[in-house]
Amino acid sequence: MEKKLILKILKELREKSPKRKFPQTIDLLANLKNLDLKKQDHKIDLYLQLPSGTGKKRSVCAFVDAQLEAKAKESCDRVITKSEFDNYKNSKKEQRNLAESHDFFISQVEVMAKVASVFGKVLGSRGKMPNPKAGCVVPGAIQSLGSIVKKLQLTTRLQTKNELSVKVAVGTENMKDEEIAENILAVYNALLQALPQDKNNIRYFAVKFTMGPLLKIEEVQPKK
Question: For a FRET experiment, which of 9, 84, 114, 189 has its CA 20 to 30 Å from that of 15?
């Protein structure tokens, strides 16, 4: 995929998408083929740091015990200590509000089992359980959570769920096209590496604004 082609499509996308009173998200859609999602090695589930981030601040909540509480409060938007877990145990509403209020959840490894027991059902169904792949499970002796939170501001998840496609936010319309194009290329390259047959598993890539038309970037030609 060539950067100049992406920039051309982004220009066309801006011209064809109606203006809104809010900065719309720009989504990248990868339409896939020749995969059997019942096979574990055909599923995509990876975390990727976008060069320019998604254009939105990511909210981070931490589950910790007293050992890490002070350090977590220095960097995270919300901190819930082990002693507070029982306040949520019998309230699915509070758990849902918590899940909807934050993009990522960090857990101290020493309390992870308790996190899974109390919050697992609600966070798991939303794909928000603290995940080691994203660096979100940390030891209590860690010196700081600052670098992890900083990385999470750039992090997105590429995942096939029940469809042969991956949809991911690659920016907002108030970002520069150059930044969005770099993000799209990062996703493209990550997917090629993750798919079992790289280009042979991709039908096409397309972009769209939240409330705009879908424009294909390119039909991917299979490797011979």
Answer: 189
Q: Residue type for 49, please?
A: Q
Contact 78, 62 (CB under 8 A): yes
pLDDT at position 179 is 96
* Fold classified for 3-55+156-184+204-219: Ribulose 1,5 Bisphosphate Carboxylase/Oxygenase (3.30.190)
Whether 189 shows a pLDDT value over 80: the answer reads: yes
Distances in Å between the Cα of 42 and the Cα atoms of 37, 48, 193, 220 are 6, 18, 12, 18
Across the chain, mean pLDDT equals: 92
Query: 60-152 belongs to which CATH class?
Result: alpha beta
In angstroms, rounded to a whole number, what is the distance separating the alpha carbons of residues 191 and 44?
8
CA–CA separation, 177 and 39 (whole Å): 37
3-state secondary structure of 146: helix
> Residues 80-121: pLDDT tens digits?
999 999 999 889 999 999 999 999 999 999 999 999 999 999
| Rounded Cα gap, residues 109 and 139, in angstroms | 5
Burial of 108 (0-12, 13-18, 19+ CB in 10 A): buried
